[in-house]
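In this section we walk through a basic example: taking a raw amino acid sequence and producing a predicted 3D structure, encoded as discrete structure tokens. The instruction is simple. Fold the sequence below.
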Amino acid sequence: MKATTRVNATARLCGWGRTSHSTAEPLGPLDLPALRALIARRPAHGLLARGAGRSYGDAALNSGGLVLHPAVEPWLLLDPHAGRVRVSASVAFTELLARTVPHGWLPPVLPGTAHLTVGGAVAADVHGKNQHRDGTLAAWLEQVDLVDGTGMLRRLTPQDDPAAFRATVGGMGLTGVVVAVTLRLVPVRSARLRVTTRRAEDLDALMDLLDTAPTRYAVAWIDGTAHGRALGRGVVDLADHLAEPDPRREPDGPRYRPGPALPAPTLPFCPVTPRTAAAFNGLWYRRAPRQRQTTASLGAYFHRLDAVSGWNRALGPAGIWQYQFAVPDAGCDLVACVLEALHRHQAAPFLGTLKRFGPGDDHPLSFPEAGWSLAVDLPAARPGLGELLDALDRLVARSGGRIYLAKDARMDRARFAEMYGPLDEWREARERLDPHRVFRSDLGRRLGLCD
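The resulting token sequence is shown next.
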């Protein structure tokens, strides 16, 4: 494998929400010797590995520095007998699914988009619609291959160097460059799921359906514009894998075949207003069945937004803020409080999801904790939205909750420190892994995680 020739040119990069922008020098892919040599030279303005660029905010930006995009060439080695895959960090979940599903194996955690890379998933310690049962990606990783800040290749495992492993998985790319991982898989007999859809008339009913979900997967699509007695109404989708291949749709056994994506228009204005958001959510709610059981493909259940290519461009030039927080059971009233505040300020949430979370892990920067997680997509052009979200940050912190770093574009250092608490273990591990402070990001600088 040959290293890509470095060109002294800069590029304008942005987060998926298109609210965070920066100029950096892109580079990659590199072979392992070239990568180690580059890191050992300690680039003056730092270095950051960037995956698919699906973080909403500034997690994958490094203003004025180097951005590896992609860091390494994609490759994948599947052991179908052991149910294990060894894969490079630049492989996207689309390719991972295409290779593993025909052999009867599935990645145990599927993020909200199949375009995410494995390295990006490790950096964010992603969760899926089964977090309440199966935890985050960290629970399924056997090994993470990391090139640290001295250029050394380290093979991190939960047993051999638990502090470095915990700092890296969920560490937002600030401990080194993840080049490969070894991941345990889960067995499946079909690439389709049996989905039970139920409509809930208010937030209490919605949360009760999630709290008592008997299935492996559970998610609620919530109407963020409803208020009064209908506050928090929505639709719950509960799902399990089919026990056998669907004879009509899978005559040759399970396959992963995502459908073609429709192009999204690029609009010079934001089409989402309080009125259009309410109309869209109301129509979506009314069209949902009170109760229905059907089957769905992996893509239809896990990655609905992937059906529209570049959908983030359709909300106008100001972009999107996704506000996602988790709060413990004792603070569950905050979900209603946030929905009421968004309605009161006419924030126009056009997409919203609610999930029940099980216990989190002990990774310092990992997001999930036992309780509830609400995510809403908001047009960033709405007047006064930044001030409203600052106020909601303070409520989340006081309730013992936290904001998802992979979705964040604006939280300040004080709220971050309040939510994530003392980070002595993470900082000690990072100092050991990156003593020369090579790895930097705009998010890290904003939150005080790096220089």
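Looking at the output, two observations stand out. Residues 1-7 have pLDDT under 50 and may be disordered. The chain has 13 helices and 21 strands. In the next section we compare this with other chains.
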